[in-house]
Amino acid sequence: MSKLLILFIFILSFSFTFGQDENKLETEYVDVPFAIIERAPIYPGCKVGDNGALKKCMSERIDAFVSSNFNMKLIDSLELPPDIYRISVQFKIDKSGNVVDVRARATHPSIEEEAIRVVSSLPKFTPGEQKGETVGVIYAIPILFEVAPKIYKEDSKKSKRKKRN
Fold first, then answer.
1. 128 CB contacts (<8 Å, ≥6 apart)?
2. Which of 20, 84, 125, 134 has its CA 20 to 30 A from that of 156?
3. Burial class of 126 by CB neighbour count within 10 A (0 to 12, 13 to 18, 19+)
4. CATH number, domain with residue 42
5. What is the C-alpha radius of gyration for the chain, rounded to an integer number of angstroms?
6. What domain range is 43 assigned to?
7. Do the domain assignments include residue 24?
């Protein structure tokens, strides 16, 4: 029974692979990872230059955008224990330059929702290119934040009194 199943899967995969148009497979890209894209998407305001400069500018602008738009009051309201936290975010810049398919992974669902909200509000990009064709580009960013230990007002008053004496 298992040999028959393996044979069936082999035949099915063989016919699927060779049943497609080879020229279409060579020129059609689904999505390309940011690390290997030939011409990176262009964030608004980044000057067109070599690919390395475009990637650097894009990464810096995304980091700045996320930092300035992330609602840190949400983090404070969750009363997380002091630590450094990481949010893993992945999204695609589609063939039109829009940010789509945003996914996030974090320690709390509210933090995931906030990360998705912020990244989804990124401005429209000039799309990336691979072999001269516009393609979707997969991009991933870590968002790091630190929850510092809380210093209570009573403790700070006591320490001020000690300093005066």
1. 32, 37, 38, 39, 40, 41, 93, 134, 135, 136, 137
2. 84
3. middle
4. 3.30.1150
5. 24
6. 31-148
7. no
> Which is nearest to 61 in space by CA: 16, 122, 115?
122
Report the amino acid identity of residue 4.
Answer: L
Which tokens sit at 87?
């949010």
Beta bridge partners of 92: 100, 138
DSSP states of 71-116 = -HHHHHHHTPPSEEEEEEEEEEE-TTS-EEEEEEE-SSHHHHHHHH
Which ranges in the chain belong to alpha helices (H)?
Answer: 2-18, 22-27, 51-69, 72-78, 109-120, 153-164
Q: Would 117 be classed as within a structural domain?
A: yes
Say if 89 falls within a structural domain: yes
Kindly report, residue by residue over 23-35, the tens digit of the pLDDT.
444 445 589 999 9
- Domain total for the chain? 1
